[in-house]
Amino acid sequence: MSQRNSDRIGIDYLSMVGAPLPEFIRTAAAAGARNVSLFNTLPTNFNPWNAALRSVCEDAAVRRETIAAARDAGVSIALVEGFAIVPESSV
Asked: Which InterPro entries match (predicted)?
């Protein structure tokens, strides 16, 4: 795959939902992804990592850590999704 095409590859946070954002970004970079998507709100009833659910939109420290991880890994935040629907959600 050419460098130009590899820049188009991204990983959605749904792939590692609940993981700390810096860890998710480092994992995406290690897999060769140059773009990631994040959630604006986190699902409180689905957390397989049992991690503290910290919002990138509401927590300045999380924003700083996430931006630093993305910068250090050479990864762009390409999309921030507004919501998540999980089995227990009422739609």
From this structure: Xyl_isomerase-like_sf (IPR036237)
Do the strands 35-39 and 76-81 form a parallel or antiparallel pair, or are they unpaired?
parallel
* pLDDT-derived band at 65, boundaries 50, 70, 90: very high
Overall domain count for the chain: 1
Find out whether 29 and 74 touch, Cβ atoms under 8 Å.
yes
Give the residue with greater pLDDT, 30 vs 89: 30
> What would the two tokens of residue 72 be?
């250090």
> Which residue spans within the chain are E strands per DSSP?
10-12, 35-39, 76-81
- Is residue 58 included in any domain, yes or no? yes
Query: 55 by DSSP, 3-state: which?
Result: coil
Residue 11 clears pLDDT 70, i.e. is over it: yes
Torsion of CA 24, 26, 81, 83, to 10 degrees: 10
Q: Which range marks the domain in which residue 77 is found? A: 3-81
